[in-house]
Amino acid sequence: MTLKTTTEMEQMEQAPKPAVLTERIDIIDIIRGVALLGILILNIPYFSMEEYFTEPWSQDTANTNFWVHAVNVIFFEGKMRALFSMVFGAGIVLFTTNKEKVGKSATWLFYKRMIWLTLFGLAHAHLILWMGDILYFYGLIGMLAFLFRKMKPKYLALGVPIVAIIGFVASTLFMQNIRGEYLEAKAAMEKQEAGAELSEEELEAIAAWEETRKEMIPDKEEVVENTALMKGSYSDVAGHIRPKAFDGQTKYLIFSIWDMLALMLLGIALYKWGFLTMKWTTAQYIKTIWIGYGLGLPLVIFSFVYNTIHFPNVEAGLKYIEEHSIMWVNLIYDFQRILIMMAHVALVIVLYQKGYFTRLMNGLRAVGQLAFTNYVMHSIICTLVFFGYGLNQYAEWEYYQLYYLVIGIWIFQLVISPIWLKYFLFGPLEWLWRCLTYGRIQPFVRK
Description:
Residues 270-439 form the DUF418 domain. Keywords: Membrane, Transmembrane, Transmembrane helix. By secondary structure, this protein is an all-alpha fold. The chain has 18 helices and no strands. The model is unreliable at 1-23 (pLDDT under 50).
């Protein structure tokens, strides 16, 4: 056996160490577990359904799909992603605080952690083939959020309305660019149909719109072709998914930064204020529930009804864009989702404080501890069920039927995650991520 020198031993003692399980904050793991399971509600249609899948029943109130979709939009759409981002922001403080308290720099260690997360995200999108991956974005945007971790909470929280307005302006400019292309192309096509000869600029306008339309608004024939690709071999699916994932990670990255960054900063603020660590009184949490649902639910219900009336299909959407240069209703989105997300969190905290649903809370805590592994597990299960190289169930199920699988995955992860943690300290991906971050093999089996 090789004996280590005193200097080597001192270097090992001074090297940054990962947080041990006793340093975890249970309620944050529980909230992360809620976000992790909830995000599958919104993700699963994009694993399994063809484009425009809502059109046949988008205004049919007698259809079960309509009401399942309504519940998802009102209570979960945007809220679970917001919750996941907020908890990620709190995790930045948790990761760095203990190390910085003893005078050790966590900067390079944190950036290594984010670089590896970004690479995991690329693998998740381009190998497992989930074009809705968030790991890549969290890795990049986490590096930005880290720079603001020591800012006062009130300034961090101010970032939410500021970024919401920036996001609205950015999306409006994007829509106006598309609207301009569409109107120019439409005018040129009407002139062409009337038998007039088109100028070079008019022909270019038609070509530009056709390129945009193919990318964002495929026609019915293209939807059939895309569905056939998703029901094909691994290479067929990859050929369809990878370009979309790459565009999201590059061309449209600027539109993703603001939302996630603001929510991460909000998570840091709420952690510092004690909201996420149960330092508020029960009365304060109950007040948050009343305000969050009381203001958020009317806003989101109005938005849902408005969109249901005005955007039942692609044709109606194009007509709306033609007649309106700004979609003012979109201003509602960020405010209602944050109000309802805050109410969701406060409700979970109150239930936990009062000791309700103890077994469920234990399961959620374990799911949250294994969030990385469980998140990627969602993708593996869904791709193998729906994509052509798996069970080939893509575009075969009714929308409401997807949630039988969702509930099955929830039950599996709520049962298996606590059992796993009886024998292992971390999930397999969490363990691998720690090993790569710290540059050495970490303990894995629980003694």
